[in-house]
Write a structure and sequence with these properties.
With 126 residues, the protein is mainly alpha-helical. The chain has a domain of 72 residues. The protein has 6 helices and 2 strands. The protein has a two-stranded antiparallel sheet with strand order 1-2. Strand 1 and strand 2 form a beta hairpin. The termini are far apart. 22% of the residues are buried.
Length: 126
């Protein structure tokens, strides 16, 4: 599927986005966010808020919000992104939704058994 989108390099990730998102262009003069990467170990809401604020300044459309987000991920968060089902994401809200449990647990100071980035973890006082 990677070749369908011109992603012919070795190890290309099939995008999780619908054809409508993939076919839509970036806004004119779009620049990638210059921000810290999110690795899944910090507050996801903070990363999402920073990302959305930067993208707002760039006048980014839904396409840019979706397509560029993966470039702000690393480590566990990148591995989570790679496991998303190709063609399954139709909006940035849908893409960001699985990150919300990560933020709630971190804010309350204790890890409890929950699903965070697709893996069940039981931790105490992380």
């Amino acid at each position: 599927m990677g070749q369908q989108y011109g992603l012919e390099q070795v190890g290309a990730v099939d995008p999780p986005f619908t054809l409508a998102i993939m076919a839509s262009p970036y806004p004119a003069r779009f620049k990638m966010p210059s921000m810290s990467s999110y690795d899944g170990s910090t507050d996801a809401d903070e990363h999402l808020e920073n990302y959305q604020a930067y993208m707002l300044i760039q006048n980014a459309n839904e396409t840019a919000l979706c397509k560029a987000f993966c470039l702000t991920l690393t480590g566990t968060a990148w591995q989570w992104y790679r496991r998303l089902i190709p063609g399954s994401i139709s909006s940035f809200k849908q893409l960001a939704a699985p990150l919300q449990p990560c933020s709630w647990v971190r804010r309350h100071g204790r890890w409890r058994q929950h699903t965070c980035l697709g893996s069940n973890k039981a931790r105490a006082n992380h």
